[in-house]
Write a structure and sequence with these properties.
Blueprint lengths: L1 H20 L8 H13 L1 H14 L5 H24 L9 H27 L4 H28 L4 H25 L4 H34 L1
Helix pairs in contact: 1-5, 1-6, 2-5, 3-4, 4-5, 4-7, 5-6, 6-7, 6-8, 7-8
Organism: Thalassobacillus devorans
GO biological process, one term: proteolysis
Pfam family, one: PrsW-protease
Length: about 220
């Protein structure tokens, strides 16, 4: 059990540390990040219950519906909802980049519990693959969600549009990720590697843009 927890938490800690220390100004309070992470972790249980109920009833079981609705839409919606409910109006959410930090914290909380359950059921031999693909993909979806929620709050008059993008861009990418896994059989790796590389390129670019916007907002406030 200790080895499973270590293997499950190591990539999460590495990614969260990278995101946290990439903020150029006013690092966020750790208690709020931890609370947000825990909220993300708790989301796994109602989400898995809903998915289980649909599976038992035989609903939305085609690979495409399952990938985009039961995985992409359901999982990203609950993360998006808890972000808006628990973080969006918080006084510590005061820079564009903060959206990325809290978006990643929620997503990694979700990914951590999901990863522990998977490793308990299937064994630690899958730990590295889980770190490279499911855990990092959740974090990257969190970067994109947080980027557009931050943009909605600080850098645009198109708030509703940005909040919509904060939901549906992760939904589309999450659905595509799951569809690659479920429909490409033994060839999935050849599609997943460029897909993940593209996500990382986009994610790093959003990190830089959010930091730039945060720095501009900070300088104007001074």
């Amino acid at each position: 059990m200790v080895s499973i927890l270590t293997l499950a938490l190591a990539p999460v800690a590495a990614i969260m540390t990278f995101i946290y220390f990439n903020k150029r100004i006013e690092l966020e309070p750790l208690p709020l990040i931890i609370r947000t992470f825990i909220l993300g972790a708790l989301l796994v249980f109602p989400t898995m219950f809903i998915q289980y109920a649909f599976n038992i009833e035989g609903l939305l079981q085609s690979p495409y519906l399952h990938s985009f609705l039961l995985a992409g839409l359901l999982e990203e919606f609950v993360k998006w909802f808890i972000f808006l409910f628990a973080v969006y109006q918080h006084r510590e959410f005061d820079h564009h980049y903060d959206g990325i930090i809290y978006g990643v914290a929620i997503s990694l909380g979700f990914a951590t519990v999901e990863n522990i359950i998977y490793l308990l059921a299937n064994g630690t031999q899958y730990a590295w693959g889980r770190a490279i693909f499911p855990v990092s993909s959740h974090a990257l979806f969190g970067i994109l969600m947080g980027y557009y929620i931050g943009k909605a709050k600080f850098n645009t008059t198109r708030t509703k549009m940005c909040l919509t993008l904060a939901l549906f861009i992760p939904v589309a990418l999450h659905g595509l990720y799951d569809m690659i896994l479920t429909t490409t059989s033994n060839a999935w790796l050849y599609l997943m590697i460029p897909f993940m590389a593209g996500l990382w390129v986009i994610g790093i670019r959003k990190i830089r843009l959010a930091n730039h916007h945060s720095a501009n907002l900070h300088s104007k406030a001074e």
